[in-house]
Design a protein that fits this description.
The chain is mainly α. It has helices at residues 2-9, 17-26, 34-44, 48-69. Helix 3 (34-44) runs antiparallel to helix 4. The mean pLDDT is 90.
């Protein structure tokens, strides 16, 4: 998800791992760590319901950032 979000939002090429997370977080003017918080929730999901909720939050976060770019 990190790589896909970075590509969609125009992250500089070559950013990886924590550096890419930091760049994605910096796109969010409303919440510090917005991408990282959502990404961590997906990684910590204990069941299918939690995973689906986390995926929806990541999708919504990315869609909002895309809307801001237009």
């Amino acid at each position: 998800m990190r790589v896909r979000a970075g590509a969609l939002l125009g992250a500089p090429q070559g950013l990886q791992g924590k550096a890419l997370d930091h760049w994605l977080d910096s796109r969010d003017k409303e919440q510090a760590g917005g991408f990282t918080t959502r990404s961590q929730a997906a990684g910590e999901a204990k069941n299918l319901t939690q995973m689906q909720q986390a995926a929806e939050r990541l999708h919504d976060w990315t869609a909002r950032r895309l809307g801001e770019r237009r």
